[in-house]
Design goal:
Layout: E1 2-3, H1 6-19, E2 23-27, H2 31-44, E3 48-52, H3 54-60, H4 68-82, E4 89-97, H5 102-118, E5 127-130, H6 137-153, E6 157-162, E7 167-169, E8 172-174, H7 184-194, E9 202-206, H8 225-238, E10 246-248, H9 256-264, E11 267-272, H10 274-290, H11 292-295, H12 305-308, H13 310-332
Parallel strand pairs: 1-4, 2-3, 2-11, 3-4, 4-5, 5-6, 6-9, 10-11
Antiparallel strand pairs: 7-8
């Protein structure tokens, strides 16, 4: 299947929600990390989501160019071509677009995709995230309404964030405090503004203590039971069971029990970045230390081309990242659940 069509992406979400599993959503920054993600999904026999942040998109366009639209399209083009050979289905997503980046990133991509749809083509991306966590909820939802309408025209799904994820990602920082916990009232405001699917499909990142970055298990106080409370509280008012398709942000360092409970309560997508960054880099470090006199021309020697060939350590990096994705798929129960 390779890259999901809009219909298949919707089917992926429905299958996950009905089957109580979630897809690893893996941040990618280069052709090598795209390959690693696809390899991991294939080894786990799991469909999945690859996603690009604004910083990742800028890097992919060329570290001296920093064109976030170009980088996003380049990564999507590479993924679209190479994914055909992996036997799994993948959706491509843009991650954490803050207000100041909308006009230079997500809005241009949505406009491009709307033109693709008008021409009878498929959109390049399957979903885009609007991160309104830095603005008041009312403003967040006003912008979300506008973007949801644009998403319908582009045949993409919108992801929103209701609440605040702590820590730091792509230059955005948030304190670790009570603002990290979304309320039932926040959920009700969301469905009043965006509906429950009739205005267009959207994914919702409700926050339950989530924090971006590197933390040991137990350092972050997650309350995944809050997701059930919000699903039931909003559902009882609007007469719909589990009304939200939920996204888990800031999952690094989470325990297996916390992940499992979150999935039980409606999470169908879990973002993974910090852990896969380390899993990619760690084998490279091992290679460099083990082959120190091969990768460096020490004492006037010529070194060992086989050791410093980027393919040598690149394969190790990709294998390490792929293995971490397999672990994530097993925790999220998507392993063995691929379509077809």
């Amino acid at each position: 299947m390779a890259i999901a069509t809009p219909e298949v992406y919707a089917e992926m979400i429905d299958r996950a929600k009905a089957g109580k599993f979630a897809y690893p959503a893996v941040n990618i920054t280069s052709s090598s990390t795209v390959t690693a993600a696809l390899q991991g999904f294939a080894e786990a026999e799991s469909d999945g989501i690859i996603q690009v942040s604004v910083g990742g998109a800028e890097y992919a366009s060329g570290s001296t160019i920093k064109d976030r639209v170009t980088g996003s399209l380049a990564l999507a083009a590479y993924a679209t071509e190479v994914a055909k050979n992996y036997g799994i289905t993948v959706a491509i997503h843009t991650d954490h677009c803050a207000k100041q980046n909308l006009d230079s990133w997500v809005r241009p991509l949505l406009a491009l995709e709307a033109e693709q749809v008008k021409a009878g083509k498929l959109p390049t991306f399957q979903s885009h995230m609007w991160d309104g966590s830095t603005v008041p909820l009312e403003e967040n939802l006003i912008i979300a309404e506008e973007l949801l309408e644009l998403s319908v025209a582009a045949r993409t799904i919108l992801e929103i964030e209701v609440g605040v994820v702590g820590g730091e990602e792509d230059g955005h920082e948030a304190e670790i405090n009570e603002k990290l916990y979304t309320t039932v009232e926040d959920g009700l405001a969301t469905v009043r503004a965006l509906g429950t699917g009739e205005k267009g499909r959207y994914l919702t990142a409700l926050t339950f203590g989530n924090v971006h970055g590197v933390y040991k298990p137990g350092a972050v106080k997650l309350r995944p039971s809050l997701l059930k409370e919000i699903q039931e509280g909003v559902g009882s008012v609007i007469g719909k069971d589990n009304p939200f398709d939920l996204v888990f942000h800031g999952g690094s360092g989470s325990t297996a029990e916390e992940i499992s409970e979150a999935v039980d309560n409606g999470v169908i997508k879990m973002n993974i970045d910090t852990d896969t960054q380390y899993a990619y880099t760690r084998p490279v470090v091992g290679h460099m230390f083990t082959n120190y006199d091969g990768v460096l021309k020490v004492d006037g020697e010529v070194g060992n081309k086989k050791a410093y060939d980027p393919r040598a350590w690149g394969k190790a990096a990709e294998a390490g990242m792929a293995q971490r994705i397999v672990e994530a798929a097993q925790q999220l129960r998507s392993a063995g659940q691929k379509i077809g």
